[in-house]
Every structure is written in structure tokens, then in C-alpha cells.
């Protein structure tokens, strides 16, 4: 499984930095939704699902966390600690997020609106979906 990061456009100068994420520019889709996961305490572990169709890009605007990505054949772990690099969470990738720093603000950009029927929350069902 390839891990793909998108490099956002960044303007750095003596007055600080500015980072841009724009539909179809630094990420390959129209942005329909942005959500933030923050205030995760201690051993908090989230995710435990895949999506049938949703494609997302994740990055930490502050702090860091780890991502486990699993395509049903292979599992890979990635650390997100750079707000200028967005991690692709493709459809049909089981993902879990953990080891959140206290200050972590995980930002996720999605190519569609929230739709619970797009979630696969059961790992065996995920493996079955991959066979289709
Ligand atoms: P969920 O995606 O399960 O979070 P995580 O994978 O981080 O554990 O979502 C948690 C809850 O928030 C769930 O009840 C659905 C709701 N939710 C929305 O209503 N809209 C959204 O855009 C998202 C991402 C979640």
C-alpha cells in the first residue's frame, strides 16, 4: 500500500507562515466538508472504520497523532505532525488514529458530506467489501 501525502502551498516569512489548502489544487477533489478532532485525552483511539466512497485528507494544524492505515492486506503507521502535508485517506482504507498529543487538532477535509451509510464500522464487513 502506498502512503500518499499532498504538499500544501506555504508562504513563510518574517511575519509568520500562511498555508493554503484549495479544492483541486493541492488536493485532488472538491472540498465538501471539513471537521476537526481535538481534545482527545490519554489513550484515546478513534476511527476504526473505512468508507465505501469517501476520500479524505488529514493533517494536524497543531500537535501530532498517529494513523494506522490498513488496505486489508497490509497495515502501515504514519505520524502526522506537519500541517503543510496532508495524508490521503482513500476509500476502502481502514483507519485508526491514536497517540494524540494534548494540543492536537486533527483536521480532516472530505470530498462529500457526512453520510453514515458510507461507513464500514465492522472489520469483517470491510474485508468482505474489498472482495466485491
Ligand atoms: P466518527 O466518524 O465515528 O468519529 P471517529 O472516527 O473519529 O471516531 O464520528 C463521531 C460522531 O460524530 C458520530 O456520531 C458521527 C458524528 N459525525 C457527524 O455528525 N458529522 C461528521 O462530519 C463526522 C465526521 C462525524
Detailed description of the structure:
- This protein is mainly beta.
- The protein contains 1 helix and 12 strands, in the order E-E-E-E-E-E-E-E-E-E-E-E-H.
- The strands form 3 sheets. The chain has a 5-stranded antiparallel β-sheet with strand order 1-9-6-11-4, with no helix packed on it.
- The longest helix is centred in the last third of the chain and has 9 residues.
- It is globular, with a radius of gyration of 15 Å.
- The mean pLDDT is 97.
Describe the secondary-structure layout:
Blueprint: E1 5-7, E2 9-13, E3 16-20, E4 33-38, E5 46-51, E6 56-62, E7 65-70, E8 75-80, E9 85-89, E10 94-98, E11 105-110, E12 119-120, H1 123-131
Residues 33, 35, 37, 46-47, 49, 114 line the site of thymidine-5'-diphosphate.
Amino acid at each position: 500500500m502506498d502512503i500518499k501525502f499532498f504538499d500544501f502551498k506555504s508562504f513563510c516569512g518574517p511575519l509568520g507562515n500562511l498555508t493554503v489548502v484549495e479544492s483541486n489544487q493541492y488536493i485532488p477533489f472538491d472540498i465538501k466538508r471539513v471537521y476537526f478532532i481535538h481534545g482527545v485525552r490519554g489513550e484515546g483511539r478513534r476511527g476504526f472504520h473505512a468508507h465505501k466512497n469517501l476520500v479524505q485528507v488529514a493533517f494536524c494544524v497543531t500537535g501530532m497523532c498517529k494513523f494506522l492505515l490498513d488496505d486489508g492486506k497490509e497495515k502501515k503507521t504514519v505520524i502526522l505532525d506537519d500541517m503543510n502535508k496532508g495524508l490521503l485517506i482513500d476509500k476502502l482504507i481502514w483507519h485508526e488514529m491514536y497517540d494524540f498529543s494534548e494540543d492536537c487538532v486533527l483536521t480532516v477535509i472530505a470530498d462529500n458530506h457526512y453520510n453514515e451509510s458510507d461507513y464500514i464500522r465492522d472489520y469483517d464487513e470491510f474485508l468482505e467489501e474489498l472482495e466485491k
